[in-house]
Amino acid sequence: MSYMGITDSARPDFDSIIKKIAKYALKYEVKSHEAYETARYCFMDSLGCALLALNYQECTKLLGPVVPGAIMKNGCRVPGTKYQLDPVQAAFNIGTMVRWLDYNDTWLAAEWGHPSDNLGAILAIADFLNQKGQEVTMKDVLSAMIKAHEIQGILTLENSFNKVGLDHVLLVRIASTAIATAMLGGNLEQIQNALTLAWADGGALRTYRHAPNTGSRKSWAAGDASSRAVRLAFIAMTGEMGYPSVMTAEHWGFQDVLFKGKKIKLSQKMNSYVMENILFKISYPAEFHAQTAVECALKLYDSVKDKLSDIKTIYLETQESGYRIINKTGKLDNPADRDHCLQYMVAIPLIYGQLTADHYEDKIAANPKIDELRSKMVCAENESYTKDYLDPDKRSIANSIQIEFNDGSKSKKVEIHYPVGHRKRRSEGIPLLINKFHMNIKTRMSKEIYHGIESICASQEHFENKLVDEVMNLICREN
After folding, report:
1. Is residue 158 located within the same domain as residue 303?
2. Which residues fall within 8 angstroms of residue 12, CB to CB, at 6 or more apart?
3. pTM, full prediction
């Protein structure tokens, strides 16, 4: 066979990274009990985040079919709604809901991201296969989640896409494309072809995450990436050709065009490392580099709540990544701007003693005390925090806060290295995560449905053996 006059023999072999990801997606067998258990909690947390997002009109206005009224009979279902959609649009809906409130899991390294963003594609494909008569279990879903987490997470360890201005959601597209194609029954060549199509798409700009353009696209960008992945998977399944040297081709490849000529690396073998070490946002819907800062502020709340007017300076120390992306001064335009501002996320708990998604809305942001406190904050990088943040054996996300008052006195310096959602605090964090899940699904589900979901999720073995159809029948109903 030839393509545009180029014979098969003249075409290059697939780039090494394409081959490794495709082989992992197709052939790796997950054996880690810890990974499966963590994946169940990840599914629960992601579902809770998705249902909670349905309480926000800015999210729900984006949901449903592309063309109003274009419902697909026996289509893929969307949790908490009556929508039945084609799998591409279902992936967009589910992915957008999971990501909307910036409350789902996180992975931090040279690049950042939220691997549960891939659930949009995974759940859409699982329900698509289910509707076609294929029996898909929730263990199959967990296996796909573990693999998607791993692909996205390992790609972040030494590859910083943000430093060349690209958004991390391109890794959602890569991971979801590989897993969606495998779920559809793709062979090794089809998965490789699909991956080359995904890399050929390039990457979205991060500009919608940063001033002066910070906006709500950051809340649906992952849904967009997962839906594109599903589209590319279906294209590859038709037998459409791939582009073997899409990463390394001189002048025209991804690395030369978009990565400043640097080589993209897979710095360790893929297994189930990322899922086992995933970071959960348990207590606060806040950009993850600020999670421990919020905890520090809450520890100071009781001692400073009646002395806010007497504050002279608030000293913040953070990691290099946190300093670079969420250290913001000046006007904040909208909730998307506020939930990525370290100073805002510290001011709120100092004033209110808590931080919820509602605290980013305009009504709360209008409180002049917030900007007054922000103006008194001095933020600096702590090099030891940065070192431990990048250490693969630590992966800490440290912050500290100390407050100086007008009379010269100071609060104690509060320093926290690991947030409650870190693997090192699992025994403390999981009960809180389960409570977060229960509270979130209660906002959208009747008592009957809530108890049904709770029952399904309570046992690992029971959950894994459930068919996707049974779970979707339950969660895809409006309250």
Report:
1. no
2. 244, 245, 249
3. 0.89
